[in-house]
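We were asked to recover a plausible sequence for a given structure. The inputs and outputs are reproduced exactly as logged, with field labels preserved.

PROBLEM: sequence recovery
POSITIONS: 325
GIVEN STRUCTURE:
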């Protein structure tokens, strides 16, 4: 009997077909989730899991998954998974790097432009019937912030941060960065995080969420940002203190914010951020283009098929699990 792979969300048919050549597939229905208590025996029978960032895989969940040999996440971020809990049990974890940088940077730059030039706010203004004969073009009407000629500070210079830097150069921005790895890129000036926050007109966050980056952009750091700056986050919600962002918007320290990701997703309807007119929000759609999602599915299936063949995953987050092979 072939090994069973539990697939938490339906992938496009061609990818499911490729997986099905190597394993029996147990694809969850729309109403089911990996952590459902009712899924107990199906979880314990599975050899592999193909999941997404909406599936939390922690020690408690892993307890009854004694057959599990691999997890392949259709995401580049793996903060939804307890990686060390997998590693101690020799379970390989795959992700999907290298295919979503441009789509995510496009989203970040769209948020930057929208926040700077009040595009979403203007859209609401018209739809709400506020654009009237007495509220219309005047020299001071709907003033935004200049993008060209300003400084963009990039926090995290991985593939998405670098793609953001290329876009900013095209808009005539000065580009600075701080990155935990110390990586340097031509045309991008390296600064300390403190200097970057103090001097950037726009700050865009592109680090992965980890213990070292949780709450990195906290209240104390936001208070040191250049007055009137704009904060963009397309990385993960836990990196930015949301209540500090709301307070900084209220007191005018921040001009605006553009957010694709939130501490809790979906963002609660009563979030202070949603009440602020200068916050542009989108529902975690950084990588949401059809071609990017196909490439992510492809990477995830390549990883899963390698694991099913007993080979190392080509995009493996914890390659130390292969040390004993
Ligand atoms: C990822 O893959 O981690 C992204 O957040 C998906 O949009």
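RECOVERED SEQUENCE:
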């Amino acid at each position: 009997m072939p090994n069973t792979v539990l697939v938490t969300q339906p992938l496009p048919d061609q990818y499911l077909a490729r997986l099905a050549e190597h394993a029996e597939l147990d694809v969850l229905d729309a109403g089911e989730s990996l952590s459902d208590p009712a899924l107990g025996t199906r979880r314990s029978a599975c050899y592999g899991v193909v999941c997404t960032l909406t599936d939390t895989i922690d020690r408690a969940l892993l307890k009854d998954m004694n057959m599990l040999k691999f997890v392949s996440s259709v995401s580049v971020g793996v903060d939804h998974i307890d990686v060390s809990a997998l590693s101690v049990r020799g379970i390989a974890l795959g992700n999907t790097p290298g295919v979503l940088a441009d789509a995510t940077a496009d989203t970040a730059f769209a948020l930057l432009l929208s926040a700077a030039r009040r595009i979403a706010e203007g859209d609401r203004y018209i739809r709400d019937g506020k654009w009237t004969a007495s509220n219309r073009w005047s020299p001071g009407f709907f003033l935004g912030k200049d993008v060209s000629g300003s400084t963009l500070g990039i926090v995290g210079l991985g593939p998405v941060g670098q793609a953001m830097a290329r876009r900013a150069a095209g808009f005539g921005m000065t580009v600075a960065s701080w990155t935990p790895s110390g990586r340097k890129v031509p045309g991008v000036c390296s600064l300390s995080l403190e200097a970057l926050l103090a001097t950037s007109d726009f700050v865009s966050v592109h680090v992965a969420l980890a213990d070292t980056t949780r709450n990195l952009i906290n209240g104390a750091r936001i208070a040191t940002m250049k007055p009137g700056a704009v904060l963009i986050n397309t990385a993960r919600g836990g990196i930015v203190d949301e209540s500090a962002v709301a307070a900084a918007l209220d007191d005018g320290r921040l001009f605006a914010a553009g957010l694709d990701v939130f501490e809790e997703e979906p963002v609660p309807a009563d979030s202070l951020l949603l009440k602020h007119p200068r916050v542009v929000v989108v529902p975690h759609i950084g990588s949401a283009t059809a071609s990017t999602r196909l490439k992510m599915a492809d990477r995830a299936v390549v990883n899963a098929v390698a694991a099913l063949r007993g080979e190392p995953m080509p995009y493996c987050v914890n390659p130390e699990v292969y040390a004993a092979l």
